[in-house]
Amino acid sequence: MAEEFDNVDFLSQEAAVERPSGPQRTASPATTNTPAKVVQPKPQALPGRQGPSAILVSTRQKGNPILKHVTQLPWEYSDIPCDYVLGATTCALFLSLKYHRLHPEYIYSRIRQLGKLYNLRILLTMVDITNHEEALKELSKTSMINNLTLILCWSSQEAGRYLELFKSFEHASSASIRAHQAETYQESLTEFVTTPRNINKTDAASLIMNFGSLRAAVNAEPEELALVPGWGEKKVKAWYTTVREPFRVRRAAKSNATLLRQETSMFSEEASTPESRPGSGHTPIPIGSVPSLSRQGSAAVPTQNSTEAGPSHKRPRLEEVTMDDLDEEEEAALLALADVEAAKSASQTSRPAQPQARKEPELSAGVAAALAKLRQNG
Questions:
Q1: pLDDT per residue over 323-339, tens digit each?
Q2: Are residues 61 and 139 in the same domain?
Q3: 148: closest CA among 191, 102, 117?
Q4: Most buried in the list 124, 129, 206, 375, measured by CB within 10 Å?
């Protein structure tokens, strides 16, 4: 056939057609020799432990009027150590203060039977007596020690509503009670301006639109704020007072007033004569003259009125010590330091009397004879 056509190109094309069949035969065994890829199973999330769909009620609660008001959710009796099971990790104990007054040991035995079961342990207390202060103090301490949450109710309807709410919010997320977080600058600005009770969102928008910035609105005077549309006298006063209040809270205002009253009483005692108080060896020292803990060794500096010389009988006025930064321990330390200073001053006043007693035998003989004659004649 090659002699008939004598065409080299034809032979080359024929060889090219037969050539791919060779590699295909050798490549097919290679694919069969590769191992199959193993696929691992994906882990699946286990479902959470589900509590009963109905409220479980202990047989001890038969006849309780609370059960008549549990109408929104189903409930059924069950043999449980607590009074009510409101979820997989929530339980409740019911207590009437009237019953607690007659049988005070009942609730302690129930808590002992409950043990460490459940995470949220509610002590649902019915306040059905008038003088309930002492009983509630006792139950509050007991709840803190035994990891209980004390919930008070004043009627059976309110108690039943509490049971329904705890059961209905069994699987609720924390987003329902989480405060709203501002996401944009405009929301944050509106939330800040509406902090005073009398100012709403419309007033906040009018304020920023009128002044252009929060800085200008804060520094504005009442006359300028009154020109804002919708802003009356109450809103102007509320805004002006709020933005000029100190950011720091005066925690010890009451203790400061008490110490100032003590200082006034101490000054009045100093003004009285020593003869009217016989045998009093303790001299009170004003709190204002005691050095503070932050400045050891520094005494109170008297004002100009106390340094002026003259026959004036006005009592010296010392600088008042600001007690805003002091807590109860520091105030107790200041009072103890005042007692120490008073003891030192009392000992210093009593020391000069001792040398005088020692110097009496050192008198001359003539003076002693004159004193003897005076005693005989007198």
A1: 555 556 666 666 776 77
A2: yes
A3: 117
A4: 124
